[in-house]
Amino acid sequence: MKDRQVQVEKLRMDAAECALIRDLATDPKKQLFIRLADRLSLLAAEAERAVAEVSKRKE
Asked: Among 10, 19, 24, which Cα is nearest to 37's?
């Protein structure tokens, strides 16, 4: 379970890095990093829900 939480945190860190790059990027690449940050944030949220669901079932 701890391994899954580490993966969720990695996704969150990747999303934060993309958001930072997005803020520094110029127009052509800015859109790419907007989409990447949004997608990684969504994946992290979904992964976190899945981890919580599995934890809940084990209780």
From this structure: 19
What are the residue ranges in the chain where pLDDT is below 50?
none
Query: How many angstroms separate the CA atoms of 36 and 58, rounded?
Result: 33
pLDDT in tens, 47-59: 999 988 888 887 7
Residues 6 or more apart whose Cβ sits within 8 Å of residue 36: 15, 18, 22
Please give the C-alpha separations between residue 47 and each of 2, 30, 31, 50, 55, in angstroms, as whole numbers.
13, 26, 24, 5, 12
1, 55 contact by CB (below 8 A):
yes
Whether residue 59 lies inside any domain: the answer is: no
Can you give the residue range of the structural domain that contains 22? 1-54
